[in-house]
From TrEMBL:
SMART domains: MUTSac (SM00534), MUTSd (SM00533). InterPro entries: DNA_mismatch_repair_MutS (IPR005748), DNA_mismatch_repair_MutS-lik_N (IPR007695), DNA_mismatch_repair_MutS/MSH (IPR017261), DNA_mismatch_repair_MutS_C (IPR000432), DNA_mismatch_repair_MutS_clamp (IPR007861), DNA_mismatch_repair_MutS_core (IPR007696), DNA_mismatch_repair_MutS_N (IPR016151), DNA_mismatch_repair_MutS_sf (IPR036187). This is DNA mismatch repair protein MutS. Signal peptide: none annotated. The gene is mutS. Residues 692-708 form the DNA mismatch repair proteins mutS family domain.
Length: 875
């Protein structure tokens, strides 16, 4: 950008402001436009698709420029922030009409992904958290999460695993932390978050505490239960500082802070959240559990449901409270429908309330809040009479704020406009002067009509008309034919081709009254509206509580509706350790089956004292993964307080669900390495407890067969022998693991049944005791359209390998013995290649090509390409 004293005053002002926000795109208001200059203009033109021009602003060099009309701000702001930019909005702070010289300008808001308050930047069904993180060391991390658009504020503390789980569960839109921890943050939590680094001095306990106490107006933080959480408080302090830095001074809607306790929730780590497909991954084709369960009718409900899903409860009392309420709502259809109708009509109470201190709420939204309060009154009355404790308590917490509601409805007209500044929003009878001015304004207009008539009669000018223009206001117009009848007292103002225009002193007096009245009307209306907003601020806390209660009611009704619609049943949560689910189904797959297809339900029993570990084998595509996942999903749903897709479910209180899927299932995330698989498995082994549920899906398949079997075997052994004895489902293609059943008492083999008809498999999908003998991988290859020659050859090799395996066994080598000779398979690999004549160069090539292939990780298409390569070599 051009610099120097030859800049215009406007550009000098721009440069001074831009210096304060070097890492943000500065939207600089000039007249009716927001302009960007220099590098900002280059970026804005690329991201927004607006024209980039160059102009010489009175300086020696050219300056890039790109702008858009001010009324398009919301649309363009949204695009810039979504593209990952921080955007500083610089407005004119004075009315240009009243200023001589350059208008004062200043940044009124710095918008970043985590501090967005604009409707367009927010998704109604998800929170938009800004997270603050304070690293003390790996075992002491303070966290704070604030959704400025709803006022929800949480504090937590824990080690890095716990911090990771919280970040996964609350999925903040932006994370701020100490500058010198940038590398550590990426190493620990990956690259998935939008981050911003802050100076170290901000992360100071007394500074943070002071900030919090000043904000809440309290002497200590004891009332919030967070007094002792120094690291969490420091993280919260960083958030407050960041809000100040981004010009967000109006935070009266943050009325309290809540602590998140580690042991109050059942935890899932990021792999489990992903493997169980709980929330969408941005791939709209794939349905996730949240899609199926979310039949809420309000934004508060939708946001809360997501939190319930990612942070299920671990307190039986609280879970049963939800389950009983859901059961009650199922039995009382009328009340449920009435609750849902009321919740729906209330709108997004949380976000509307948060707009009050920001002065972003419009008259129509204020009236909406008041109408919501009427619904809350109805809800409160209806629920407090019902015989369900939890619903009654929720009803008690609702506050219809009658004074506020009455006042709003009395003050505003029935259908107020969206914009506050244009008048017509205050009802008649609210303000005497306003009513009088309004009658002057309307009467004034009537007067002009009467004046036209009487003057016409007095002067005999039948063509007389009263008109108005911006140059000299109201006038009397007389056609040339009647010009001679005009009295001397009239003052001529304009001569037209066919007519003359005059003003009279009387006309001007009335004109002043009318226009003065209109200006005054606008000012009084604005004043009254501001007063309403001030009154609303006093009700911030009860209004927010209403929003939260409405969210809970919405979720409970949603669970009741789901139970009825999808035939879910009430689970029994218990403090024991045995898990028993009868006729369990996968809630997502059963919703996506083609018409006429029926989901095959299965029973699952796991018990640390009996059947602790199930080794599950079965053909490819038979439903092993589905069975594992449905067991986890039923357990999870029960901990949310939802009914479950089963006919009966006895669920032990579970502290953690772990799932690991063999590496090649995760190719897309660039995390396909065996190392990742092993890291993940190691984290299970190191974090499990006797209350954990462990699901292992084809663990070990990311490496050579013998390595894989050995590792899978020893993991199963470890889980069996470890004192925590976690309930485990282990799906595998390694049939060798079936030998474990004979050796270890709490390991049981199961398989998923199928029937072979001719050379076809029919999947019966029923779980049955005992292992299965082979995988039908070659059959799947055939289904995928591999050439018959290739399939025949694969069958030949398979039977050769099976004979060889049987022969080895005859020689008395059990699998366990083989596992002990871990390295042997590497040299043994030669046997697989004796099928080729290795004397020619071509075959040596093919041999090394095949040696390099890992069949376990080869997709059908890759196999075809390899085959094509081999064929070409033979040519
Ligand atoms: N119980 C069931 N009832 C009906 N359809 C099912 C059932 N279980 C699984 N399916 C269907 O079969 C498909 C394959 O299931 P799944 O992925 O669980 O197989 P798998 O045995 O784990 O296969 P692979 O070993 O190849 O990973 C599912 O996507 C689903 O459409």
């Amino acid at each position: 950008m051009a610099k120097g004293s030859s800049d215009t005053p406007l550009m000098q002002q721009h440069r001074a402001i831009k210096q304060k926000y070097p890492d943000a795109i500065l939207l600089f208001r000039v007249g009716d436009f927001y302009e960007t200059f220099g590098q900002d203009a280059v970026v804005a033109s690329q991201v927004l698709g607006i024209t980039l021009t160059k102009r010489n602003n009175g300086s020696a060099s050219e300056n890039e420029l790109a702008g858009f009309p001010h009324h398009a701000l919301d649309t363009y702001l949204h695009k810039l922030v979504k593209a990952g930019y921080r955007v500083a909005i610089c407005d004119q702070l004075e009315d240009p009409k009243t200023v001589k010289g350059i208008v004062k300008r200043g940044v009124t808001e710095l918008v970043t992904p985590g501090v967005a308050t604009n409707d367009k930047l927010l998704e109604h069904n998800r929170n938009n958290f800004l997270a603050g993180l304070h690293f003390k060391d790996d075992n002491q991390i303070g966290l704070a999460f604030l959704d400025i658009s709803t006022g929800e504020f949480f504090i937590a503390e824990g080690d890095k695993e716990y911090a990771d789980k919280l970040l996964q569960s609350l999925q903040p839109a932006e994370v701020v932390f100490q500058r010198q921890y940038q590398k550590r943050f990426k190493e620990t939590f990956g690259h998935r978050f939008y981050t911003y680094a802050l100076d170290e001095w901000i992360f100071d306990e007394s500074f943070a505490r002071e900030n919090m106490l000043r904000h809440f107006g309290t002497h200590s933080l004891k009332g919030f239960g967070v007094e002792e959480m120094s690291h969490g408080i420091i993280a919260a302090g960083a958030i407050f500082h960041y809000l100040k830095e981004t010009e967000h001074p109006n935070l009266q809607h943050i009325t309290h802070v809540q602590r998140i306790n580690r042991d109050e929730h059942m935890w899932m780590d990021r792999f489990t959240i992903r493997n169980l497909e709980l929330v969408g991954n941005g791939n709209s084709d794939q349905r996730c559990l949240l899609d199926v369960l979310d039949n809420t009718v309000s934004p508060m409900g939708a946001r809360l449901l997501k939190r319930w899903l990612l942070m299920p409860l671990s307190d039986i009392g609280k879970i049963n409270q939800r389950l009983d309420a859901v059961e009650w709502l199922i039995a009382h259809t009328d009340t449920r429908q009435q609750v849902q109708a009321s919740v729906k009509q209330c709108g997004d109470v949380e976000r509307l309330v948060s707009k009050v201190p920001l002065k972003k709420i419009n008259p129509r939204e204020v009236l909406h809040l008041a109408k919501g309060l009427q619904q809350i009154e109805v809800l409160k009355q209806s629920l407090s009479q019902q015989n369900n404790d939890y619903l009654q308590r929720l009803a008690d917490a609702l506050n219809p704020c009658p004074l506020l509601s009455d006042n709003i409805r009395r003050t505003l007209v029935d259908n107020p406009p969206v914009a506050a500044g244009k008048g017509n929003l205050i009802a008649t009878g609210v303000h005497a002067e306003l009513d009088e001015l309004r009658s002057i304004a309307t009467d004034g207009k009537n007067y002009l009509a009467r004046l036209q008539q009487s003057e016409a009669e007095q002067t005999g000018i039948s063509s007389l008309k009263v008109g108005f223009n911006n140059v000299f206001g109201y006038y009397l117009e007389v056609t040339n034919a009647h010009k001679s009848k005009v009295p001397d007292s009239w003052i001529r103002k304009q001569t037209l081709v066919n007519a003359e225009r005059y003003i009279t002193p009387e006309l001007k007096t009335y004109e002043e009254k009318i226009t003065g009245a209109e200006e005054k009307i606008l000012a009084i209306e604005q004043g009254l509206f501001d007063e309403l907003l001030r009154e609303l601020q006093d009700y911030m806390a009860p209004l927010q509580t209403n929003g939260q209660v409405l969210g809970i009611l919405d979720c409970l009704c949603c669970f009741a509706g789901n139970a009825l619609q999808y035939q879910y049943r009430k689970p029994v949560l218990h403090n024991g350790s045995a898990l028993m689910i009868k006729d369990a189904r996968h809630p997502v797959i059963e919703r996506t089956l083609a018409a006429g297809e029926q989901y095959v339900a299965n029973d699952i029993d796991l018990d640390p004292e009996g059947q602790q570990i199930i080794i599950l084998t079965g053909p490819n595509m038979s439903g092993k993964s589905a069975l594992l996942r449905q067991t986890a999903l039923v357990t999870l749903m029960a901990h949310m307080g939802s009914f479950v897709p089963a006919t009966e479910a006895h669920i032990p209180l579970t502290d953690k669900i772990f799932t690991r899927v063999g590496a090649s299932d995760n190719l897309s995330g660039g995390e396909s390495t065996f190392m990742v698989e092993m890291n993940e498995t190691a984290s299970i082994i190191n974090n499990l407890s006797s209350r954990s549920l462990v699901l292992l899906d084809e663990i070990g398949r990311g490496t050579s067969t013998y390595d894989g079997i050995s590792i899978a075997w020893s993991i199963a052994e470890y889980l069996h022998h470890c004192p925590q004895a976690p309930k485990t489902l282990f799906a595998t293609h390694y049939h060798e693991l079936n030998e474990l059943e004979e050796k270890l008492p709490r390991i049981k083999n199961y398989h998923i049944t199928n029937r072979e008809v001719g050379n076809k498999i029919i999947f019966l999908r029923k779980l049955a005791p005992g292992g299965s003998t082979h995988s039908f991988g070659i059959h799947v290859a055939k289904l995928a359209g591999m050439p018959p020659k290739l399939i025949d050859r694969a069958n030949e090799i398979l039977s050769w390998l099976e004979t060889k395996h049987a022969h080895d066994n005859e020689e008395g080598q059990s699998m366990q013995q083989k596992v002990k000779q871990l390295q042997a398979p590497k040299t043994d690999a030669q046997m697989q290649l004796s099928i080729f004549d290795a004397h020619t160069e071509v075959f040596t090539d093919i041999r090394s090509m095949l040696e390099a292939v890992d069949i376990n990780r080869l997709t059908p298409v890759e196999a075809l390409l390899k085959l094509n390569e081999i064929k070409n070599k033979l040519k």
